[in-house]
Amino acid sequence: MTQKMNTEARREQMASAALNLLAERGSEGFNIADLAESVGLVPSAIYRHFEGREDVLDVALDLFRDRVYGLVEAARNEAQDPLMALELLLTRHARLIESGGAVPHIMASMSASEEHAARRAKTERIFAGYVARVESLVREGQESGQVRSDIDPTAATLLFVGMIQPAALLRHAEGERFDITVHAARVWDLFRRAVAQD
Amino acid sequence: MTQKMNTEARREQMASAALNLLAERGSEGFNIADLAESVGLVPSAIYRHFEGREDVLDVALDLFRDRVYGLVEAARNEAQDPLMALELLLTRHARLIESGGAVPHIMASMSASEEHAARRAKTERIFAGYVARVESLVREGQESGQVRSDIDPTAATLLFVGMIQPAALLRHAEGERFDITVHAARVWDLFRRAVAQD
DNA sequence: TGTACATCAGTGAACGCGCGTTCACTGATGTAC
DNA sequence: TGTACATCAGTGAACGCGCGTTCACTGATGTAC
Fold this sequence. Notes:
The structure is a homodimer. The first copy, chain A, is mainly α. The first copy, chain A, has helices spanning 7-29, 32-38, 53-78, 82-98, 103-110, 117-143, 153-162, 165-174, 180-195. The N and C termini of chain A lie far apart (65 Å). Chain A is built from nine helices and no strands. Helices cover 73% and strands 0% of the residues of chain A. Chain A binds a DNA duplex through residues 1-7, 10, 31-33, 41-49, 52-53.
């Protein structure tokens, strides 16, 4: 028999493993057997710690939310000013995608499920919360005079949020030839030119 | 018995119906029973015209590619210059999303399938082809002097491609309050400022 | 123009695989005395 | 410190639902004569 763990520790381990699988395969490809295998257990063991598949996805989504929101907070805390915070955030998203933690992928595949309305709604709320956090950075930039005050903060925010997404998809198609970090730097220059007070 | 149709006509009808379902539910939620119902037939009737589910998705993807590439060609033909073509393309994407033909949704959910490597690869090729077509507009803009020559055309292209994507997701979360057409206009102003020769 | 025949799109019952889930059982771990 | 017991994480067999797929059959449509 495999090493036993108390249930809190297992839940965390499983949620984290589930999130990795989701990043790789999306919610369609996610299944209990693979999750069990990835933590070295047998499928039925999952049910000691979760009510079922949908419960696993729910908890994984909580973890995802905490990590993504944490990314914004970390960028805000470490940067000197709002614009620098955005640049830092972009860089870290790029690095995350590079290492396989495909954020946009998870968002898109989670929100696709028509049947599980609750999961879909939750995903959309998480996304909206992320957008709101980025938008507050943009507004702070406007208040501090770094960001032009005549632009719509929501538009600027969604432009920012979309910058990294297509790159993630293209990276799969082009493989190693496409360097996301370099792309992030280039696209940041464009974004800065669009929104910065000159 | 329902009205009979010759197989070419049915295939087209089914492929189109499949694409609609994919836009609504993603490839995860797509199933043969719903497809059959949406064309007024019984599930087994699908197999008169397709080899199976994966074949339906394949043909629907062909249709999707033709429509999306057609959008770029139409914009190019109708516009006076490359920059106008991009603006027109953006507007039409916005309208398409508004009417439920969720382009990014389809892309994301199709490319998520780890198991069906062929489908995934095909989706990525389609996306890469789309990016290449938009990029050629950007390059033409540079040649004609409308677009600044010191920017990386691929970066500008991916910035453009990402502009509409997050808006589609947010629209679900915020519902009617969020007007995609208005968003498209605002974000276009930002894009123009980033890339246009001043 | 009408009848007989061939073709083939549509039907419905049944099948089977994959996968989520259940449950009685095991045996490791930690606690009480 | 050692033994007995309770707890509970992990197991493996089995179950059943959903859904894609098959197949023998039906009957509409179009063609030959």
